[in-house]
Every structure is written in structure tokens, then in C-alpha cells.
Amino acid sequence: MNLRQLRYFCEVVEAGNARAAAQRLFVAPTAISMQLSQLEERLGGPLFDRASRPMALTPLGRFVYPKARQLLFEANDLESQAQGMAAGNLGWLSIGFTRSTLFSILPEAVRVMQASYPRVRIELAEVLSAHQPASLRSGAIHVGLARVLGPTSREPDLQYDELFDDPLVAAVPLQHPLAARKSLRAADLDALPYISFPKDANSHFSRQIMALLQAAGASPHMAHEAKEIHTALALVAAGLGATVVGRSVAANNRADVRFLPIRNLQAHSTVLAVHKRGDTNLLVGSFLEVLRAQAPPRAPGKTALAPSSNAPGRRQKTGARGRPAAPVSA
User: Fold this and answer.
1) Helix 18-25 vs helix 29-43: angle between axes, to the nearest 10 degrees?
2) Mean pLDDT of all residues belonging to the chain
């Protein structure tokens, strides 16, 4: 199966018959017939009911047509972008993000970047923080927006920009009695089932949150495990339980969920920008500048933005017995 066969097939569907498709493609009708026959042989069945007039698609043809049309669109788009990049007229920036950053820094940063570089194609890929190093090394993304909780180890070939600290808050149903309070203690969340997220074997975020709640005197009972934060908040809104998120998530979020500070929960999350050390892509540097400008002011007593938390001369955070602490991320 090749693109020419798919293109001829789609033209026959859209033109109504092989003769009209041949005229549109400036080829002989026999070329159309030959390519269709080869495609049908490859797929193992007829695409058209040739006994009908006008010729109609078979169930196989109806299945293949929209997918073939999408493949042709993507192939044309790839060709156009590649030619633009080869000619120096088009750039490409791929940004990996953990979903909670959709509520804070990411949308405005992308808008500013696109306005400043209208010829740059910006791609967004949802990638959990734990998976971003592999995506950066493979070239699938150029920059990662990650969220980490507590001490984290830093990969020596990656550079980390701390954008802002994000205290943890409780998300409770708007109709629950807890929603009437101004703040909570961790143990107050025992009044509701707990909803954990994200559901991913490589993410320690949910387990670390549970441990923090227990250390603060709570005894959370996990009733639901959501794949991502939007689902978790939807379950909260439905009255099925409570969860814990970064404070930035509360801004411009659901009106049927109440976000409350947790007085005796001292830990906070940090939002980072991660990229390959020594990356020469100028667009990466430009996007980092945009992120720094969009980041909210750091709390009193916090240091200014550090270009890299594993820069020369800076000691890495360690866990017990002096070993690098394992990353805790969402």
C-alpha cells in the first residue's frame, strides 16, 4: 500500500467514478484501475461494489476512505513543513507538558510565543513529568513543563529551570460542608473518600501525596484512581470525593469545586522547565524567556529563578544516607 494508491482511491470516491478521477489526476483510466486493483489485493477485499451504478463503496471501502484521506492530509502537511524548514522559512518547537500546567503558565506562554514567532510550528504533547527525560533525549520534545514534589534527583544531561513554587491545596465538592471553611487540616479530608491521580506506574506523585497526608495526621481512604487531573476534578465535582492539587490549578477552574489551603501540609510542588543541556535550538531559549516572564512572582524568602538546579557549583538535593532522592512527579 502506498500514497499513490490511496490518492487514486480517494479521487475515485470524490469524483464518483474512475474516468472522472483520471481526468482530475491527468492520468489514463487504466492507471487508476491498476492502482485500485493493487490496493484491493493488498487489503484483501474490494473497496467498491462494481455491480452498482453509480459505483458504491463496500463496508471495507467506507472503513478505509476517511483514514486514507487523513493519511494523505498528514503526508501533504509533512511535505510542506519539511520544505519550509529546509528553506529556512519555518521553525518547529515541540513542548511536552504535564496536564496541570494547562491551568497556569502554559496557555499564555504558548500564545506569546506564537505571536512572537508566527512562522514557527508549535506542537503540544501531553507527557507526564516522569516520561519527559526520555522524550527530550529522543527529540520528541524540545522543552518539558514538569511538576515535581519534594526533593528530586536531576539528570546530568538535562537542565532544569525552576519557574514557580505551587503550594498544595484541597479540592472538595462545592456542596460538601467542608467547602464552607476558609482552610482545612489534613485530617479534615478523612470526611470524604480520596481521589488519586495520575494513574501511571511510573509516577510517584499520588503515592507521595498520600504519604504527606498521613504524615500530617490524615487517614485517607482511596476510593477512585483517575488517569489525569481533569478526571479527578470531575469526580470531585460529582461529590465522589476530594483530592489534592497545586494552587495554580484553582485559577480559572471549575466553579463546582472548592479549593482550600491545607494548614498543616508544609510540602509544596514546583513547576519546572526541562530541556537538554547544551541545546543549540534558539527557539528553546526564546521559549524559556517567555516562561520566565509568565511565571508568577516567587514567595518572599524564595530565591530568584535559577537557570539550572544542577548547574556547576550547586549541590544536588539528596535523600536518606546522601543518595540522590528519587523524583516525585506528576
Assistant:
1) 110
2) 84
